[in-house]
Amino acid sequence: MNVGDIMTGKPLTVKLDDGVEKIYFIFNTQHVRHLPVVEKGKMVGFLSDRDLKKIMPKTARKVMRTNGKTYSVLENSLPHGALMFMRSNVEGYIVEPLKVREIMHTEVFTVSPTDDITNAATLMAEKKIGALPVLDNGKLVGIVTTTDVLRG
Q1: CB 106 within 8 A of CB 78
Q2: What is the pLDDT of residues 1-44, one digit of tens each?
Q3: What is the pTM of this model?
Q4: ∠ at Cα 16 (140, 138), nearest 5°?
Q5: Which of 11, 114, 137, 142 could be stapled to 7 by a disulfide with Cβ–Cβ 3.0 to 4.6 Å?
């Protein structure tokens, strides 16, 4: 069985300059855990719900620091109790909203629709990742997850 037989075609995508609050909203309303980042028709990165969780505070704090960056987390009026993620300077003043480009992975493992699902499963297990973008001649055509592989 090939990846193309079990993948989800036409996955939801986001752009480099989308705000992280949009990602939070998508993860919580569309019930997906992985999002390819696409710019000008080309996949340039990948996000998982774990990437978002890494920048979320464990308790209700106004300012948090991670990976040498400082973030303010502010509650706002977005649906489903969403949080507004903002990049801040050291003094805690808000500079601008945090963007997808700041938390996405740029080194992304991919598969093609013709790859065997066993190879995709092995790659996901070895790299400890839950999904792989599916590219056909460099174009994003789908996404395959561990759930897809188990169902296949």
Answers
A1: no
A2: 999 999 999 999 999 999 887 888 888 888 899 999 999 889 99
A3: 0.73
A4: 20
A5: 142
